[in-house]
Each structure stands twice: as C-alpha cells, then as structure tokens.
UniProtKB/TrEMBL annotation:
The chain crosses the membrane at residues 12-30, 36-55, 76-94, 114-147, 200-217, 237-259, 414-431. InterPro entries: Na/H_Antiport_NhaC-like_C, NhaC_Na-H+_Antiporter. This is Na+/H+ antiporter NhaC family protein. The lineage of its organism: Bacteria, Pseudomonadati, Bacteroidota, Bacteroidia, Bacteroidales. Keywords: Antiport, Cell membrane, Membrane, Transmembrane, Transmembrane helix, Transport.
Length: 435
C-alpha cells in the first residue's frame, strides 16, 4: 500500500473553504442573487493551484511544471476539452428555440389532464438532446407556469417536474458536460456509460412519471395550453441522440449535428447566414470556464497525486469501505459531497475523476460503472440543493413572470432525484454488475 500524505490534500480543502464560504456569504449573508455563480471559480482554482505549488519543497518549480504539464497533456484531458468545444459549437449552431416547439406540440396533442406529465417527458427529451439541465429549465419553466395558470395544477409540482426531467437528460445526454467529463476522465466510451446509466435512470424516471400521473389525475384540469411550434429544428438533436446511442464516434456525431443544424437553421430562416459563425463562436465561448476548470483541476490533481494526497485519501476510503459494493457507495458519496460543496456537478466530477479512477482499480469496478456512478450521484445532489444553478434559474424564471415560489416549496416535488438515489442504491447493493 502506497504511503499517503494527508497534507497534500490541502489545495482541495482551500478550494472548498473559499468557494463554499464565499458562496454562502454572497448568497445568504449579502443577499446577492445567484451568489454562488458570482464567484469566479477559475480564480479560486488558481489560488488552490498556487497552494499546491508551494507544497513539497523537495521538488523544484521546474519539476512541478513538468508534472502539471503531464497532467494537463493526458489524452483524456485533451479529448475532453475538444469535445467541450465541439458540443459548444453545436449548441450555438442549432439554438434552443426548438425546445419550446417540442413542449407546445405535445401539450397540443395530449389531453390537459396529462400536462404535468408532458412537462416531465418534454424536459427529459430536451435536456437529453441539448445536454444542459440549466438551459432546459430556463426554456421550459415559463411553459410550466403557463400550464399551472391554465390548468390549476400546483406550480411547485409543475416546476419540480421540469427540474426532474432536466436532470434525467443531463445525466444521460451524450453532449452533457457531465457525461463528457465522466467518460473522458475514466477513459470509457460514452455508449458504454449510457447503457450502464440507463439501467439506473430509467426505473427512477418511470416511477417519477407514475407519481406525477397519480397526483395529476386526482385533480381535474381547468384548461389547456396551446401555441405555435416548428419541429423541423429537432432533426440535428435527433441525429446527435441516435448517433450517440448506436455508437458513432462522438466527434463524427457532433460534426453531423453541426452541419445539419447549419443547413436547417439557415434554410428555415431561423438564423441569418451572416450570424451563423458568430453563433458558433458564442457556443464555443460558453464552454470557456468549463474548459479552464478541466485544465486547472488536472494540474492540481497531478501535483496532489505526486505528493501522496490521493494515496492518503484512497487508504482512508479503503479503511472505511471494505467491499466492492462499499467502494461503489464511497465513490458516489465522494462526488456527491464535492457537488454539495461546489454546487457544480461538472466541477465535482472533474475533481473526483482521478480519485475515482484509483478507487476503481483498487476495488475492481469497471470504468463504465465508475463513470455512471460519478455522473449519477453528482446529478442527485445537484438536482435538489437549494443553491444550485438549476433551482436558482427555475425560481428566477418564476420571479420574472411575477410568480412567487420558494426552493423549499419545490424540493418536496423533486421526485426524480430522490428516486434516482433509491435506484442507484438498489443497483449497487442488489443488482449484479454486468460482465
């Protein structure tokens, strides 16, 4: 067993204390809206990197630069960054208006008593296609408010259904930054992670749908919601979704999505030809912070590993969790705690990746299972914490439309994250791992 050095974990502690402490101060002490997201996370990681550089004086600074360069230059990190950029270009190309088309199309053809269930299903599909839970919540929450006003269904129920569906898609989407981070960090094909994840997520989604239907059918709706829609803009999303499921190379899939999206958006007049490249650039730029986080975290983790920090953490986890099943639970709790501290499931996964990789080797856990656990447990916590971007965006959308609702009114209706936790525990302790 490699000897560990607990002091080498100090950079992670510094990051968590600064980020969580400032977040609480901004959000609750100073009353700043979206306080956690007003903190420049890249700057906090730079401070953590400086702390790591000051440790282990037996190594020269040049040697530390070499170690950081090796960590940043790993194939998984480079691939992750390129996929982030390509996914950003894709989202910038196709835009997000088609999400509303899907919602209004289904609300038009399906009876109003099923409208809350429609909100959940549409949010699942939109987030699965777009790869962003926050973007999905931003787009669909105003429709949820319209459904609540027209049908009389509880607004917290409608908002909670949208948030649950958004987290389902975020957990499974091939172009979600959480999926990219988990798969590339563990060196596993996205298709394998999807199959492993699907077995856990689908039962939770089906139970959630049943609960929503039971609650909805117990109250007759007062009216229905209708609006115009245009479904042709869904084609690029379907190409990416189907291509990813059948196992086409992720770069090829995204390229096909970008090309088809460019043609459709220009041909339908949704985007002017002169604006197309600018939209692509904006989409790629939207991935800047996520990319920089991946770079900085990989550099910090390289130094922590060199200094014995991961060995110390792994030895501690092995002392607490003896079996393979316990190792899986420990892996899930690790990323869950990091997400609670950072309020960002992608950052939590990127931070947990190298530790989880060592744990997977120690406990004999497959790479696909590891990637699935990291993504799933981070989405469980991200989907319910009241200071997460998903909750804050949903509440902000309600406030903009003059509707007052609090996080603690919505949390009891976040059925999907809670059922996802139960499903995850069932698959860890009672369902044999597939060979």
């Amino acid at each position: 067993m490699q000897k560990g050095n607990v002091k080498a974990l100090l950079p992670i502690g510094v990051f968590l204390v600064l980020y969580l402490g400032l977040g609480v101060l901004f959000e609750y002490g100073m009353g700043i809206s979206m306080g956690f997201y007003n903190i420049p996370i890249v700057v906090i990681f730079l401070i953590a990197l400086m702390v790591a550089c000051f440790q282990n004086r037996s190594l020269s600074f040049d040697r530390k630069l070499e170690i950081m360069g090796t960590g940043v230059g790993e194939k998984t990190i480079v691939t992750m960054i390129l996929i982030f950029m390509a996914a950003g270009v894709f989202v910038g190309t196709v835009g997000r208006d088609s999400a509303e088309s899907v919602a209004y199309f289904m609300l038009t053809i399906i009876p109003p008593e099923f409208s809350v269930a429609v909100l959940f299903v549409v949010s699942c599909f939109v987030s699965l296609s777009m790869g962003t839970s926050v973007g999905t919540i931003t787009l669909i929450t105003p429709i949820a408010i319209a459904v609540s006003n027209a049908s009389g269904f509880s607004l917290p129920l409608c908002v909670g259904s949208v948030m649950g569906g958004a987290m389902f898609g975020d957990n499974l989407s091939f172009i979600s930054d959480t999926t990219i981070a988990a798969c590339q960090g563990q060196g596993v094909p996205m298709r394998d992670k999807f199959r492993e994840n699907f077995r856990i997520a689908m039962p939770a989604a089906l139970v959630t749908l049943v609960v929503i239907l039971v609650l909805s059918l117990s109250q007759p709706p007062a009216g229905a919601v209708t609006s115009d829609y245009d479904l042709i803009q869904l084609v690029p999303y379907l190409i990416v979704l189907i291509g990813g499921i059948v196992g086409v190379n992720v770069f090829v899939v995204l390229l096909l999505g970008i090309v088809s999206g460019s043609v459709i958006m220009v041909a339908t007049g949704a985007t002017a030809p002169t604006d197309l490249l600018a939209n692509m650039g904006s989409g790629a730029a939207g991935m800047f912070e996520t990319t920089m986080v991946a770079v900085l975290v990989s550099a910090i983790c390289a130094l922590i590993r060199e200094n014995g920090g991961f060995a110390a953490l792994l030895n501690g986890i092995k002392g607490l969790f003896k079996s393979k099943k316990g190792g899986q639970l420990g892996m899930g709790l690790l990323v869950l705690c990091m997400d609670v501290a950072t309020a960002n499931n992608t950052v939590a996964i990127v931070m947990a990746n190298p530790i989880a990789k060592d744990m997977a080797q120690t406990y004999g856990i497959s790479s696909s299972k590891t990637a699935s656990l990291l993504d799933t447990f981070s989405c469980i916590s991200q989907g319910v914490i009241p200071y997460g971007a998903q909750m804050l965006v949903a509440l902000a959308a309600c406030a903009e439309l003059g509707v007052g609702v609090s996080a603690f009114q919505v949390i009891p209706f976040l059925f999907y994250p809670f059922f996802l936790l139960i499903s995850s525990l069932v698959f860890i302790f009672f369902i044999p791992e597939r060979r």
